[in-house]
Every structure is written in structure tokens, then in C-alpha cells.
Write a structure and sequence with these properties.
Elements lengths: L1 E5 L2 H18 L4 E4 L6 H12 L9 E4 L1 E4 L9 H8 L11 E2 L8 H14 L5 E4 L21 E4 L2 H7 L12 E4 L2 H6 L2 E6 L5 H7 L19 E6 H8 L1
Parallel strand pairs: 1-10, 2-3, 2-6, 3-5, 6-9, 9-10
Antiparallel strand pairs: 4-8, 7-8
Helix pairs in contact: 1-2, 7-8
The protein binds fructose -6-phosphate.
The site of fructose -6-phosphate has 13 residues, from loops.
Length: about 240
């Protein structure tokens, strides 16, 4: 895994945005795998700035988001669908038909998951996957477990994730307990992966994914098996490595 240690959150966000833009310049119809959460907000802001400055064109880009709560309506402000439109899509020239986010209100979750995998395959697979990481080492909502799912699936959120995400809700009871997430195979099949890690609370997990051990109990450790993963980490998250 390549590692870029940045001074701060802004530098991490700018480097990530530059990598996304250079992917899209090289291949204008790139398939991007996208994440939500606090970490990539700065990257999306920078991408919007670059688009407004005429430095980026998303007209042919296709996107597949990693995950969505279940069950949740796409218009619910806590949904990842809402997040993506507010923080990125509505500000750039992406074709709405090229946006894909798991449907968190699908009646038949199993069918939704298998259709999502099919759509990713039919698009030719992910060219560049953007990832954040949970404090427990999850990527997407692939939570630590003795076995991991390879395909898109409905999953139960761990208590660590529910606690961490409660900050976005009025109370912890409102955090959905399930989500649809792409599986590990889809993530690992991406041609290129960037993993963004920011903040002191991610320093411990950051150390664990780089210690050489690969375990399903830390799903992000499987990224060590991927031939083209770059970790972009700010100094706060990397402090255990630098000091
Ligand atoms: C979100 C996702 C999650 C987050 C992770 C970190 O689409 O896939 O794996 O990346 O929970 O979230 P933040 O960035 O809020 O710390």
C-alpha cells in the first residue's frame, strides 16, 4: 500500500480530489466508487471548486456509492442518497442517470443487492474507489466478522458503528441498525483505491491496518492484498507512525 502523510485535513482532501480529477481526465467515462461520512466532505468541496473553475468535467462519469442505510427513504436528510446530492451531485454536471446508490427503501433487499452487483459489472467495474474507514476498521459497511461477504448484501451495523454514526442523528435510537453495502470482492476488484483517514480517533486503526496482518476482524486490512491502494492520511491520524 502506498502511503501519503498530509499536514492536515485540507491537504488530504486536496490530494484526494486531485487523484479523482486525474482519473477522470485520463478516462472521461470513469466509473467512480464513492463513500459518504465526514471524511470525504472536504474532497467533495474541492471537486466542486475545481468543476466551477472549469477544471473538471463529470458529464460522462458513472458513480456507484458504497452503501446506504436500510430502511431509509432517499429523501430523508440522514440518508446517504441525500448526503451525496447535497454535498456533491447537485453542484456538478454529472448525468443523474449515471448515479447509483443502493436503494435503502427497496422492499426486496436481496434483489436490490444482486441488481446492484449486476449494474457494477455491466459498467465494466470500478476504476477508482474512494474509501473512508470506521474506527473498528470497517470499509463500506463491511463490519469486522469471522467471515466477510464478497457481494453486495444487507448487513447489521455493529454497535461501534451505530455509536460512531449517532452524531448525525438526534439520538442513538434513530440510527438504522441495518445497511446495504457492496462487498469486499467489489471493493478489491476496483482498479485503483484511495483510502482517506483523518483525525486522532483513527490513529489506532490506522496502525493496525499497516501492521502486516490481514484479518477479517479488520476488513480494511484486506486492502494490503490490493495492488494499487493509496492511503492518504493526515498527521493526526498518522501521529503514531510519525512520532
Ligand atoms: C460511508 C462508508 C463508511 C465510512 C466510515 C467512516 O459511505 O462507507 O465506511 O467511510 O464509517 O466514516 P467517517 O468518515 O464519518 O468517519
Amino acid at each position: 500500500m502506498n502511503k501519503i502523510i498530509c499536514k492536515n485535513y485540507d491537504e488530504m482532501s486536496n490530494i484526494a480530489a486531485d487523484m479523482v480529477i486525474s482519473q477522470v481526465r485520463q478516462k472521461p467515462d470513469s466509473v467512480l466508487g464513492l463513500a459518504t461520512g465526514s471524511t470525504p466532505i472536504g474532497m467533495y468541496k474541492k471537486l466542486i471548486q475545481m468543476y466551477k473553475a472549469g477544471q473538471a468535467d463529470f458529464s460522462q462519469v458513472k458513480t456507484f456509492n458504497l452503501d446506504e442505510y436500510y430502511k431509509i427513504d432517499k429523501d430523508n436528510p440522514q440518508s446517504y442518497n441525500y448526503y451525496m446530492h447535497e454535498n456533491f451531485f447537485k453542484h456538478v454536471n454529472i448525468n443523474p442517470q449515471n448515479i447509483h446508490i443502493p436503494n435503502g427503501s427497496a422492499e426486496n433487499a436481496e434483489e436490490e443487492c444482486s441488481n446492484y452487483d449486476k449494474m457494477i459489472e455491466q459498467s465494466g467495474g470500478i476504476d477508482l474507489q474512494v474509501l473512508g474507514i470506521g474506527v473498528n476498521g470497517h470499509i463500506g459497511f463491511n463490519e469486522p466478522a469471522t467471515e466477510l461477504n464478497s457481494k453486495t448484501h444487507l448487513t447489521r451495523l455493529s454497535i461501534d458503528t451505530i455509536r460512531a454514526n449517532a452524531r448525525f442523528f438526534d439520538s442513538i435510537d434513530q440510527v438504522p441498525t441495518q445497511a446495504i453495502t457492496v462487498g469486499m470482492a467489489t471493493i478489491l476488484k476496483a482498479k485503483k483505491i484511495i483510502l482517506l483517514i483523518s483525525g486522532k480517533n483513527k490513529a489506532e486503526i490506522m496502525g493496525k491496518i499497516l501492521n502486516g496482518k490481514i484479518t477479517t476482524n479488520i476488513p480494511a486490512s484486506l486492502l494490503q492484498l490490493h495492488p494499487d491502494t493509496t492511503i492518504i492520511v493526515d498527521e493526526e491520524a498518522a501521529y503514531k507512525l510519525v512520532s
